[in-house]
Amino acid sequence: MAAHLKKRVYEEFSKVVQIPHEEAPAKKLRLSKPSKSAALHIDLCKATNSTDALQYLLQFARKPVEVESVEGVVRILLEHYYKETDNSVRLKIASLLGLLSKTQGFSPDCIVDDAINTLSNEKSHQVLAQLLDTLLVIGTQLPESPAVRQRLIEMACKHLSDTYFGVRIKCLQLLGCLGMVDSPLNKDNEGLGTSIGGVRDVQSIISDYFGDQDPRVRTAAIKAMLQLHERGMKIHQIIYDQACRLLSDDYEQVRSAAVQMVWVLSQLYPESIVPIPSSNEEIRLVDDAFGKISHMVSDGSWMVRVQAAKTLGSMLQVSPHFLEQTLDKKLMSDLRRKRTAHERAKELFTSGEFSSGRKWADDAPKEKLDTNTVNLIASGACGAFVHGLEDEMFEVRIAAVEALCKLARSSPSFAEKCLDFLVDMFNDEIEEVRLQSIHVLREISMHITLREDQLDTVLAVLEDSSRDIREALHELLCYTNVSTKECIQLALLELLKNLNKYPTDRNSVWKCLKFVGSRHPTLVLPLVSELLSTHPYFDTPEPDMDDPAYIAVLVLVFNAAKSCPTMPALFSDHTFRHYAYLRDSLSHLVPPLRLPGRKQVYGLDSVDSGSGSGSVGSAQLFLQQSLNRVSTIQNLEAPGAQDLLDFTIRDLQRLGELQTELAGAADFCATYLRCQLLLVKALQEKQWNMAVPLCLKQNVTATAAAQQILEETCKLEFL
Amino acid sequence: MPEIKVTPLGAGQDVGRSCILVSIGGKNIMLDCGMHMGYNDDRRFPDFSYITQNGRLTDFLDCVIISHFHLDHCGALPYMSEMVGYDGPIYMTHPTKAICPILLEDFRKITVDKKGETNFFTSQMIKDCMKKVIPLNLHQTVQVDDELEIKAYYAGHVLGAAMVHIKVGSESVVYTGDYNMTPDRHLGAAWIDKCRPDILISESTYATTIRDSKRCRERDFLKKVHETIERGGKVLIPVFALGRAQELCILLETFWERMNLKAPIYFSTGLTEKANHYYKLFITWTNQKIRKTFVQRNMFEFKHIKAFDRSYADNPGPMVVFATPGMLHAGQSLQIFKKWAGNEKNMVIMPGYCVQGTIGHKILNGQRKLEMEGRATLDVKLQVEYMSFSAHADAKGIMQLIRMAEPRNMLLVHGEAVKMEFLKGKIEQEFSIDCHMPANGETVTVTTNPSVPVDISLNLLKREMALGGPLPDPKKPRTMHGTLIMKENSLKLVSSEQALKELGLNEHQLRFTCRVQLQDPHSDPDTLHRIYTHLKSVLKGYTIQHLPDGTVMVESIVIKVSSSAEDTNTKVLLLSWSYQDEDLGSFLSTLLKKGLPSGLC
């Protein structure tokens, strides 16, 4: 039976997929036969003024050009380029050249000479910039030709001294993209009349432009340097000082790029030692960079702040006391060095001389200014995360939360310290921030144990009206360690309240309690009698078995009982009955228990699955195969994919009917594939990218599909 | 050297009565015009007789700028404009203009109707005064007159609070008013661009405080209120009607909603409703969250907060009351305080700063017995909590602003002298700029180094660019030749030819000639040829010509040889060069004085 099915599926499969492959390319060829270059030539000759010529070029640019005719077209374009007097037309031609050399299959080395020639005769700065851009494209198309590269780099160096910023930017881009990674660049060539002689490498040439008068050029210089780094060149450490200076640039894009540059260097040379200005102290480079980037978290521009906050998260090698300083706005004493040994003795202040503003009148100045102290970190860098987390823009806050997460994951002690800050973020006014901080707390929860007051703040969020937040919080609670039984009680209480208020959360709440129970068996134990409302002497009424709240309590207790064998002794009779019922109906939530004097109910599954008959084996194989087939779906054209999905779903449903052992898996896969199918269909309608007023009427299908997808995925999650 | 003079009439080493006079580039500007909360006599207003003994102020001031609507920044405005006399322009932001008259009217009512003072400004005066106000927008540059321009920046603190950048020519001053560098539940943070003013006049209320996270403070506040309510106590929060009050309202409102609390929250004055109205209107001045969500629900439409009636104070059971004024020196907050002070279950939370002499200041300093008017004493049994919710920048914030604006000099006002001294030291250490802290009536003079703009002709510039190296380096000065023409108050730098043409003058040639004696046994033409080859070998890259008329030309320098009359071996070289070639000429003369090398053929 299964074999028969298989065969049929294969037939269908091959039929559907291969047809579109054969026809498509033949058509294209025929359409494009008439010579493009000739037509273009005639058009351009016809053009009487520059506007006409531009029009022709624009029209031409809209149509694709095939590989064979690219070269001809390029020749025609160049010919017109030499004749053309109007700057804008030449600019357009230059940009077309770049566009054409990107054509797949066309090797642009034949036009390198021409492009370089035009470059040396060109007067207009804009056209120059465009030509350099074209050269950049050509250069990136020819990665295997060092000679061409060498020439291009020479051209770039020559034009670096242009007065127009656009040209300088393009030159720097060229250097960044094509600069030799392996060998130093010999700049002592003919035609370079500049005073710099000898061997100079790309890095020092680029770094000269860190001090350019135009901020755009400065940015381009840093970007070029970053590009070099990405291509695998090791950036020299001397750049660090220059990059640090650029952190205080007047323009935000420069500062933003400089933050990246400093970060790159801090990753390259984390352990080098840098001096602190105006003192003889020295610290590790990564610490210094960390301090400087922390400083940028209070920058004037929020783009830079986001950048800085994000960057902080990836500096894992930083020393712990620098890390802790980010959570305190006052300069901690261990980041200040006193010069005399006498003062070193009384260094154990917890924090500096400023007051905290929490108590009245504790802000009288205490410590006199000691000019002999040296700050290892600029005082502006203190409390970077305190600033980041209470920033005005939520983008910055989210970035800060993410950075905290990354740092806390690698440092348990820091995780402990930043816990309060993260919990405070649950009260943020923007939902996205709250959600993010809940997720983050979940990720670091293996390092921490929540105190009661912290749990209180966390649980308060359960009343949030957003389902996303509540579910994120349930998930968080699954992974949280708590310290006391009061915490468990509190959590249960709040979860039940949540269940009462939002009955749709049922599945999620139960799942959450399952984990809470299995995580804290010893804390649940003293609560059992209270939770199940049993009494030592009196029989209590049997609770309603269909009450979700009661089920929730049972899920908690049973999961705790799994690793706590003394617990079942506290159960009353009906609890055992309910256990048997729940074990069958909600088997994914209730674990098998070794109950005293009870028949071992759980043996059933394991015995069954072991005695796999031949038919089950082949069915399993079939399931596997059809799933494998589906996994190739992203390579298929849309109609083929849809058909394949349709058939696979049908097969799976059938399989589920035939082999009850595999019904669950088959059903799950079928539902999942149905979601996929819906998504593919919805995307294919192309109605979602229409103007809003138009689509209102037509997007009924899309909305319906979206709705259905949501429903199905929800089912999948709790299946 | 031009100078900028700053004289505080109020707020110099003091909080309250902000009023600062600035003279910049021949313009006189008054920044803020406030009253002092601590005094009830003449001292409550700034001493305007400093400006002039008699007559009106209009002739002496070019404009008045009000930073925000708090009375210690605008309370003396009607007095100054209507009673002392000032008809010039008064600038303030739109929200300030809207809310300021409400507060002034309230202030007038308390002083005149309740305390029975006479010789105070009237409602009509307030109206007349407001007619002189010109509203400002954020980041809008307003030209007060031909030279003076002002620009407002967002300052946080309260709705409509602004920092002002005042500029005359290339001299500039920034006055911060009160500002806040940390955003709160309803307002954003202060921001300024790198305008590099000559003086930054900053408030320094929290000069010695660095606050910890704002979120901790919020949590503490909510916890304290919650605990007192659960105990059945009453919470009094003295606030000024506008500003902190709205932030705390939003905070409590959302907390009440979340925790589903039932205890009533009251807001004491009728004035608030009017003011809340403005908060709903000026959404653009609030923070990101409120700006984004006001379409669905305006955060200032409170559900749990109701208006207060005097009789409610005696109601049993827990309640939270916001009452004005914030320093417990008068009005409703003081009345409620007196009623509740005897019960230790109750609590008063002071969310902001209290000026010396007010009851707020006394109880915060731990005084448990207060003397009221009429010799009665009041035992203070209720809990007193302080929480720094006031929206002033802390020391860190002040430093941050300095870093943002990069001023050349710093001037601290609006703070206590001891604390200022401390911060002054810190600023001088960290930024190495001068920091001043004048007392009231004391003048600080700062000399500036203004740049003088000169128009340069494009041709000249291009020519110089072509001459010089690859690119102008902004950090290195470069010399260039040109002629500076000063005509009718404008400066122009042009090439000398153009200058001659423009002025109708003839060009005078100035040539230097010099004789150099040289021992050389050859004949004249030979010597000349020898000189030619010598120079050719020394001066590479110059055009050197041997002309047929017996001269050598190096660029435009002429060299002639003649034998001396007495001794034919002694040759006399005649060098002649024009003024423009002075460098090359003097080089040649010293070169030739050394004689020709012997190895020359």
UniProtKB/TrEMBL annotation, chain A:
Note the Gene3D superfamilies from the entry: Leucine-rich Repeat Variant (1.25.10.10)
InterPro entries xref list: ARM-like, ARM-type_fold, INTS4_8HBD
Q: Would you tell me the protein name for this molecule?
A: Integrator complex subunit 4
- One Pfam entry for this protein is HEAT_2
Swiss-Prot/TrEMBL GO biological process terms:
snRNA processing
Keywords, A to Z, come to: Cytoplasm, Nucleus, Repeat
Q: Which GO terms describe its cellular component?
A: cytoplasm; integrator complex
Q: Where does it reside?
A: Cytoplasm; Nucleus
Q: Does the keyword Nucleus apply?
A: yes
User: Which family does the record claim for this protein?
Assistant: Belongs to the Integrator subunit 4 family.
- Domain INTS4 8 helical bundle stretches: 621-719
UniProtKB/TrEMBL annotation, chain B:
What are the residue boundaries of the Beta-Casp domain, all occurrences included? Answer: 245-363
Tell me where it resides: Cytoplasm; Nucleus
- Indicate where this protein is primarily found: cytoplasm
Q: Which cofactor does it need?
A: Zn(2+)
Domain Metallo-beta-lactamase: from-to ranges: 16-210
Q: Could you tell me which InterPro entries the record lists for this protein?
A: Beta_Casp (IPR022712), INTS11-like_MBL-fold (IPR041897), IntS11_C (IPR048662), MBL (IPR050698), Metallo-B-lactamas (IPR001279), RibonucZ/Hydroxyglut_hydro (IPR036866), RMMBL (IPR011108)
An example of a Gene Ontology cellular component annotation for this protein is:
nucleus
* Pfam families for the chain: Beta-Casp, IntS11_C, Lactamase_B_6, RMMBL
Q: GO MF annotations for this entry?
A: hydrolase activity; metal ion binding; RNA endonuclease activity
List keywords of the entry alphabetically. Cytoplasm, Hydrolase, Metal-binding, Nucleus, Zinc
Residues in the signal sequence: none
UniProt keyword annotation of tRNA processing present: no
Entry keyword Acetylation: no
- BP GO terms, sorted: snRNA processing
Q: Which family does it belong to?
A: Belongs to the metallo-beta-lactamase superfamily. RNA-metabolizing metallo-beta-lactamase-like family. INTS11 subfamily.
Its name, as the record gives it, is Integrator complex subunit 11
Which source organism? Answer: Lates japonicus (Japanese lates)
Query: Taxonomically, what lineage is the organism?
Result: Eukaryota, Metazoa, Chordata, Craniata, Vertebrata
